[in-house]
From TrEMBL:
The chain crosses the membrane at residues 20-39, 59-79, 100-122, 160-178. The lineage of its organism: Eukaryota, Metazoa, Chordata, Craniata, Vertebrata. This is AQP10 protein. Belongs to the MIP/aquaporin (TC 1.A.8) family. GO terms for molecular function: glycerol channel activity; urea transmembrane transporter activity; water channel activity. It is found in: Membrane. It catalyses: urea(in) = urea(out); glycerol(in) = glycerol(out); H2O(in) = H2O(out).
Length: 245
């Protein structure tokens, strides 16, 4: 009885009663899972010189991470996970505008924290692979573990178009799944369908600039690499490569 009473009191103390706080925590945890899953797959591929993973395993890890992320938050916050999706919900009047900047901040924060976790987990591997030098370009670059970067041939305009189309396909697909007038996805399997949608986009549109299709997924980790030792080149290099080389 004493133990049960103690547990009930402890649960009451940690229970979050504020709805917005619960939503923000759900988004933070879900984005954390999303970034950790994708970045771990990339870190394993890069630091093992491709012997323990390839681009497909990286995309698959990211897609499965999205599935778990949606299951984590969908019942609490709707599992936006993406500022672009939050914006779309606002434009469709299905999400209040005043929450938009709050969700975006939380999503970016979750991505930033997750990048730190991946860096800590793969710290020794990254240091060994890079010979202790954190770079954005060159044969031993490691910045692409965390954020996406354009291919050498890609112009800024083509890169912008690539991300707009990829993100539009993502949002259109999710909205189609949620539309009650459609046949829809069997209840409970929506996260699986979203994961497959993301995987299909990544496999068909990943070569130009990594297929971030999520501003938080790119900016949060890029900001982390900036403060963690890769420096301002994580932003400048995008501009230089974006000019078409």
């Amino acid at each position: 009885m004493g133990t049960t009473s103690f547990l009930k009191r402890a649960q009451a103390l940690v229970r979050i009663r504020n709805k917005l706080a619960r939503e923000c925590l759900a988004e933070l945890l879900a984005v954390f899972v999303l970034i950790v899953s994708g970045a771990r797959g990339s870190a394993q591929m890069v630091t093992s010189f491709g012997t323990k993973g390839d681009i497909f395993t990286t995309y698959l890890a990211g897609a499965l991470g999205i599935m778990v992320s949606v299951y984590t938050a969908v019942g609490v916050s709707g599992a936006h996970l993406n500022p672009a999706f939050s914006l779309a919900m606002c434009l469709l009047e299905q999400f209040p505008w005043w929450k938009f900047p709050i969700f975006v901040t939380v999503q970016i924060s979750g991505a930033f924290i997750a990048s730190g976790a991946v860096y800590a987990l793969y710290y020794d591997a990254i240091q060994h692979y890079s010979n202790g030098t954190l770079t954005v370009s060159g044969p031993r670059e490691t910045a692409s573990i965390f954020a996406t970067y354009p291919a050498d041939y890609l112009s800024l305009s083509n890169g912008f178009l690539d991300q707009v189309i990829g993100t539009a396909l993502l949002i259109m697909g999710i909205l189609a799944m949620l539309d009650t007038r459609n046949k829809g996805v069997p209840k409970g399997l929506e996260p699986v369908a979203v994961a497959l949608l993301v995987l299909s986009i990544e496999l068909s549109m990943g070569s130009n600039c990594g297929c971030a299709i999520n501003p938080a997924r790119d900016f949060g980790p890029r900001l982390f690499t900036y403060v963690a030792g890769w420096g301002a080149e994580v932003f400048r290099w995008v501009e230089e490569r974006g000019r078409g080389g």
